[in-house]
Amino acid sequence: MKESVAHLIAWYQNTLASGGYPLIAALMAIESTVFPVPSELVIPFAAQRAHATGGLSLWGIVLAGTIGSWLGATIMYWASRLAGRPLVLRYGRYVLVPEAKLHAAERWAARFGSFGVFIARLLPVVRHLIGIPMGIVKMDFRWYSLFTLIGSGIWCAVLAWVGVAAGNDPKLLHGEMREVTLWLFGAVAVVGALYYFLVHRYMARPAKD
Asked: What is the pLDDT of residues 87-138, one digit of tens each?
């Protein structure tokens, strides 16, 4: 799976100029389903390329990423809502959603409620899972869409800023490993802290009988 994702990202980087906004939206839609295409590579690379060449606009990238995220999240929501919990439990493992992962997502959703849709768009792991429990409990799709769009928009804007900021770092552009390490460590530290306090502590709890 990791090798396939690596090939997809390499292909994306080589075809972004011709694919443009539709390609960004398509990959972000895939990222918002059960397939692990990392948005942390899709948006920053596009933003850095746009800032350097002017071929795409930063706001256009954010908008394309937001719409794509909403499309993928919508697919997850309606698939889960129409299938229902029994079918998701029975067949989810075939689409990378095993029972344990579903239970964990349900516990997290129960902890944060509808506002959890907004939070989920800013965090790893639950970002592509939140549509499943919300679809199963039949959350109002209008609210689900609103929280998804707002959260996705903020996330894409942050990633675009990271891409531009990293691209403007001359030491980073010249490949100095110390600067590369600092950028990576800072990003991992922030995301890791958010993941631990808002995701891991709740998803790792055993299900109550």
From this structure: 877 777 766 677 777 777 777 677 777 777 888 787 766 777 788 888 888 8
Report phi then psi at 32, rounded to 5. -90, 0
**Is residue 6 in some structural domain?**
yes
Confirm whether 164 is domain-assigned: no
Whole-number Å distance between alpha carbons of 166 and 92: 38
Q: Which two tokens stand for residue 87?
A: 């079918």
Asked, for residue 27, whether it belongs to a domain, the answer is yes
Does residue 152 fall inside a structural domain?
A: yes
Q: How far is CA 17 from the centre of its chain?
A: 22
Structural domain boundaries enclosing 76: 2-159
Residue 72 corresponds to which tokens in the numbers above?
């993928």
Nearest to 100 by CA among 134, 132, 135: 132
Query: From the CB of residue 22, how many other CB atoms can be counted at a distance below 10 Å?
Result: 10
Would you say residue 164 has pLDDT above 80?
Answer: yes
Whether the pLDDT of residue 178 is over 50: the answer is: no
What counts of helices (H) and strands (E) characterise the chain? 11, 0
Q: What tokens were used for 149?
A: 């769009």
